Amino acid sequence: MNIKIFSRKNLVKFLQSETGYDVIVITEPDETYLLEDIKKLTSGELLHLEFDDVEFDSEQMRTRWSPPQTHHVTEALFWATGRDNIAVACMAGVSRSSAIAYAILSSRVGAVEAANCLEYGRHRPNKLITKITENILNDPQITSITDSYSNYIDDVIIFSEKRKP
Fold first, then answer.
1. Strand (E) or helix (H) holding 16
2. What is the reported pTM?
């Protein structure tokens, strides 16, 4: 399986020169930045998921945000079945798209091997999506592996904040 992770802007550039990819695009609800361009450039099938990049869920949270839900992850996993070339994109290509790509690969090859799709220092899989995936696939390794990616980014942020005058 070939899965690639992009920001929406970089996905547009990729699709201008590459064909044969099915695409998952993740946007915030009612947000359409580059969505029409991506639809026009996609040679394969397109799945559009809408949820915010938040990492916890509560009733209070849902009054302002639309967190990822089990049905989003289940839909992505089902949609990806039988597809070999998939591009996944969200706004920045860091959190939601990496978590969905990781979920798809984890369902096929297991959490350890799926982690090879993630770039340490670049990807920070959304913790709520990885927790949902862990529950769906009944694999506790999923969040333990991705936590190290989140910790790396958190350490870099803390280090850079300490360096500010």
1. helix 8-17
2. 0.88
User: Considering the domain 2-163, what is its CATH architecture?
Assistant: Alpha-Beta Complex (3.90)
Residues of the chain scoring pLDDT < 70: 149-165
Find tokens 């849902």 and name the residue: 62
Instruction: Locate the domains of the chain by residue range.
Output: 2-163
Q: In what order do the strands lie in the sheet with 22-27?
A: 2-7, 85-90, 22-27, 46-50
| Amino acid 122: pLDDT | 84
For position 56, what pLDDT does the model report? 81
In whole angstroms, what is the distance from residue 62 CA to residue 58 CA?
Answer: 6
d(CA 129, CA 125): 8
